[in-house]
């Protein structure tokens, strides 16, 4: 089997049950998908559809005792649900998360440099003080952050949302991951900054061959980055296929409604507006 066809992640009959005050709620219902080397697979759906719960469940980051996981989740062939301790072998060491909101994901009382160096330490490849600093500088340069030495000394509140998102990507890259899980990585950013972050992810993927699981509600994001799209509603996949097929020829009414919700520019009206107060 070629490297391109090798599955980095294989998910079979994966379900998540959440324990609530009103009883057990099945938030994710028997989903199946795979991500090959260098591929981007996107799960798209409206808020509450179960897409982020799927991602957090796969990473086993849901609250212990409040979430029951079932099915198979194979990372590089190893079932991390059958052996829950196995996930620790991959998280921060080949499997990385880009969380949704950079303002809450970073420690507000620790500098950017200290948080980045800690992520490098967790990866376990570098320990020396000078080597840690050099790697931190390299990672920030890799995500195109200017004036790196200055940024390392700053606290999160001193950087813009777009810069913080780049910092989170740098932290994720510290482990030299084979798989990036990006949970709504552009939802807290304005449109122009979103485009820069997506371009950066695509550039990093092209350069290093990483695989990406993208979680988004934005069909525009999915159209741009995806090889395969899974459309999620009420905890299950209602349509799956190549990105072009899902966007250009959707089969399900729910998918068509998602596409219809994307704002479109109308025709340009060149008629001058009447002055305010004119009759």
Automatic annotation (TrEMBL):
Pfam (any one): ABC_tran
Domain of life where this protein originates: Bacteria
Subcellular location per the Swiss-Prot or TrEMBL entry: Cell membrane
Entry keywords, A to Z: ATP-binding, Cell membrane, Membrane, Nucleotide-binding, Transport
Record-given protein name: ABC transporter ATP-binding protein
Span of domain ABC transporter: 9-259
Cellular component per GO, a single term: plasma membrane
ATP-binding recorded as keyword: yes
MF annotations from Gene Ontology: ATP binding; ATP hydrolysis activity
SMART domains attached to this UniProt entry: AAA
Species, as recorded: Glutamicibacter halophytocola
Tagged with keyword Oxidoreductase: no
Family: Belongs to the ABC transporter superfamily.
Topology in the lipid bilayer: Peripheral membrane protein
């Amino acid at each position: 089997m070629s490297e391109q066809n090798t599955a980095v992640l294989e998910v079979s009959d994966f379900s998540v049950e959440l324990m609530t005050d009103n009883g057990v709620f099945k938030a994710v219902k028997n989903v199946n998908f795979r991500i090959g080397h260098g591929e981007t697979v996107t799960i798209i759906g409206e808020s509450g559809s179960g897409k982020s719960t799927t991602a957090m469940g796969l990473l086993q980051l849901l609250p212990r005792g409040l979430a029951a996981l079932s099915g198979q989740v194979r990372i590089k062939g190893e079932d991390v649900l059958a052996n829950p301790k196995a996930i620790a072998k991959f998280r921060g060491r080949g499997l990385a998360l880009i969380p949704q909101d950079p303002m809450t994901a970073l420690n507000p009382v620790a500098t950017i440099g200290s948080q980045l160096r800690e992520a490098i330490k967790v990866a376990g490849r570098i320990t020396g003080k000078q080597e840690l600093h050099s790697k931190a500088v390299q990672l920030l340069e890799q995500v195109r952050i200017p004036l790196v030495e200055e940024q390392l000394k700053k606290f999160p509140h001193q950087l813009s949302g777009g810069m913080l998102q780049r910092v989170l990507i740098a932290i994720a890259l510290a482990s030299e991951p084979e798989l990036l899980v990006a949970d709504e990585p552009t939802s807290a950013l304005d449109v122009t900054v979103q485009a820069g972050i997506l371009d950066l992810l695509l550039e990093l993927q092209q350069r290093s061959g990483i695989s990406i699981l993208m979680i988004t509600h934005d069909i525009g994001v999915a159209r741009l980055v995806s090889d395969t799209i899974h459309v999620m509603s009420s905890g299950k996949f209602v349509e799956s296929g190549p990105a072009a097929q899902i966007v250009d020829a959707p089969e399900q009414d729910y998918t068509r409604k998602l596409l219809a919700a994307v704002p479109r520019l109308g025709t340009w009206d060149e008629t001058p507006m009447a002055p305010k107060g004119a009759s």
